Amino acid sequence: MAQRHSTPVRGLMSVIKSPSFEGRFGRLFHIDEKDQAKFGATEKENEDNLAKLGAAMSSGFDPPKDGKDDEESGIPALYTYLGQFIDHDITFDPASSLQMRNDPDALVDFRSPAFDLDNVYGRGPDDQPSLYDGGNTFLLGDPIFGGNPNASDLPRNNAKVRRALIGDPRNDENAIISQFQGLLLRFHNRAVADNPNLSFPDLQKLVRFHYQYVILNDFLPRIVTANVLNAYKHNGRFDKSKLKFYHPKKWPFMPIEFSVAAYRLGHSMVRPGYRLNDAVLLPIFPVAASTAPGFGQGLTGFRAMIANWGIDWGRFIDIDIRTYDGTPFENLSRLQFAYRIDTSVVNPLSALPPSVATNPSSLPQRNLLRGWRLGLPNGQFVANKMGIPPMSDDKILIGKGLDSPGPGEAPVPITSISPVFAKNCPLWTYVLAEAMNNKTSVKVPVSGDVSINTPQLGPVGGGIVMEVFLGLMFEDKHSLLNLEPSWQPAGNPNYALRDFVKYALGM
User: Fold this and answer.
1) DSSP letter, residue 214
2) Domains of the chain (ranges plus CATH)?
């Protein structure tokens, strides 16, 4: 199949439905209708009980902050947005609705179900030349300042609201993912300069291999507990024979247990705001002056990047050594960390602006409703299907996963929200609660000797993520695991996201 990755049929622009470039949503575990989780006798009771749980999973307003934060994990903040970028690379569902019951087998994933960077490359320079400079390199946008001296915005059109010219418009939805997309463009362009004799398909392969190596050897070990991750290896390498549940009959598909539940772990990792550079500290969304003076702007995107919003990447990933805590000036330049994987989501995501979502505006409630309407089984059912003893109700705690909760901060058992959740926990909540019971002490890459208790996905959540990540990669005959499983970037077995970013920045 020639040029599978360089000329994909893309997203909503598709006019031909090809199994090479579109997958379908489906189920990882076969269930009958009676196995679909229910949280009330009527539709309204289901909605009301899930709304209560969503509200309990929502934290109060917390403004952006500098300095030590008890909700931080040991995972640098950029991994949150690498996770979002990966999600955009492998899945796009424009058809499901919160207002109606959906059949996952009837939904189309308008994205090639592979880690192939089609959200960066689009249809390639021959078929989508607007992304490229007339050759093999990507167009870049206007300069932006405050961070890396050579930073630039994404290339944009000249409309009144200047939209990004990129392979997936979702990668412009906030200032961080937008600038991370820009790093991918710069990484590719530097690879072109360093390898002038490589063809475009070979350049894509080189960039994809670096990206896939980071996913397998850096991203997954950050979010999945080691004993779960290592169960998928043989002699130190990932082994297809270790997959127990992800076995497509014909074409790769996107399991709803993954896309609607397990892989929504990143929503709990989002901070209420981020410091981009010395001058710019912003909340995720604009905040009313009456609530938090000085935060009238948010990180929302789909517009030309504000010129002084350039990201100092050392605040998001350990490309150099920063402080963890100290004087106010040191806090200003400190490395920020993702929030802990737990059953609490920051307030900006619990009260989305009307321009983002309504009815409901709470992201936790939207996640819970989507899982119910798609007929997901509960977490205990999935655990049993995987041969894992389910957690008891007293282990399924709702709230922040703090080491030393203050007054009123201690998480509460899910059954205190409603008895309907007894042995009947929504799968998304179950995955997050399981992570709270799987904490690892992580030494963080800052000056001084600092370790942070860091929740990671356990056997159910981590197992689902590993099955799908490895399953998709083994199903792609062009992937690193199939073509060159022993490949390493420049012979560096410790290559990580920080090295990827440093190369893109020209360091």
Assistant:
1) H
2) 11-505 (1.10.640.10)
Alpha-helical runs (H) found in 57-199: 78-90, 118-121, 175-194
Residue where the block lists tokens 């009947």: 424
* Residues in CB range of 230: below 8 A, 6 or more apart: none
CA separation for the pair 481, 484 (Å, rounded): 6
Residue 380 CA to residue 391 CA, distance in Å, equals 7
Residue at 124: amino acid letter: G
Q: pLDDT confidence of 13, banded at 50, 70, 90? A: very low
4-29 residues labelled b (16+ CB within 10 A) or e (exposed): bbbbbbbbeeeeeeeeebbbbbbbbb
With beta carbons less than 8 A apart as the criterion, state whether 191 and 507 touch.
no
One-letter amino acid of 50? L
Radius of gyration, CA atoms only, the chain: 22
Query: At 51, is the pLDDT very low, low, confident or very high (cuts 50, 70, 90)?
Result: very high
Q: How far is CA 384 from CA 264, 344, 465, in A?
A: 21, 25, 17
Return the minimum-mean-pLDDT range out of 120-124, 293-297, 437-441, 486-490: 293-297
The pLDDT assigned to 111 comes to: 54
pTM of the predicted structure, to 2 decimals: 0.91
With H, G, I as helix, E, B as strand and everything else as coil, classify residue 289: coil
- Record the tokens describing residue 41, joined without a space: 């006798």
pLDDT class of 133 with cuts at 50, 70, 90:
very high
